[in-house]
Design a protein that fits this description.
The protein is globular and about 50 Å long. The chain has helices at residues 3-24, 31-38, 42-48, 52-77, 81-97, 104-110, 117-137, 145-166, 169-182. The mean pLDDT is 95. Helices cover 77% and strands 0% of the residues.
């Protein structure tokens, strides 16, 4: 197997694993089922990710790295906080439009009791990346800045959860609009 093939197989496994977790949660992630989906043997998944915790950590790391990159891009393409928040909330909305999925790390955080430590490290990093970006974009300062940013992240995740449960992205749209009207963010 060439290095390119190894990388391609790893990416296919990560893509399939992300789809499972976003749709059904971390506990639904099974190497056997993932192998069937990808069209390889379960042992091949173990070759790339020796444990489910390794796979979960890799999924959360890739998701966080992608989010951080997107957030930096938002800073360059949107001139103000309202535009940047529109892009930010749009990411969460896009997951709903994509087969009624959840934020990968949000659903992992909800399953914290069953999560290996290596996965929780990446979940906490995702939260920290979001809080830092929101603090910057919203111009939050003072000793409670991080708590305010965490409240915004929680509110957006909550809106996504309600919309997913209701099977209707319009619930998300109405909730985000209500947050704006209430002044939670621009």
């Amino acid at each position: 197997m060439t290095d390119t093939t190894k990388l391609d197989t790893r990416q296919v496994i990560l893509d399939a694993g992300q789809a499972v977790v976003q749709a059904r949660g971390y506990n639904a992630l099974s190497f056997r089922e993932l192998a069937k989906t990808v069209g390889i043997k379960s042992a091949s998944i173990h070759y790339h990710f020796p444990t489910k915790g390794d796979l979960g950590a890799a999924l959360a790391k890739r998701y966080t790295d992608g989010a951080a990159k997107a957030f930096e891009h938002f800073l360059t393409i949107a001139p103000d906080a309202a535009g940047r928040m529109g892009l930010y909330t749009g990411v969460f909305r896009a997951a709903l439009v994509n087969d009624n999925r959840m934020c990968l790390v949000g659903i992992m955080a909800a399953e914290k009791a069953d999560m290996p430590a290596e996965v929780m490290v990446e979940v906490e990093r995702f939260i920290a990346v979001n809080v830092a970006w929101l603090t910057q974009v919203l111009g939050l300062t003072g000793p409670e800045a991080d708590q305010k940013a965490l409240a915004v992240l929680s509110a957006v995740n909550g809106a996504q959860l309600l919309a997913r449960g209701g099977g209707d992205v319009a619930i998300y749209d109405r909730t985000i609009a209500a947050y704006r009207t209430a002044g939670l963010f621009p």
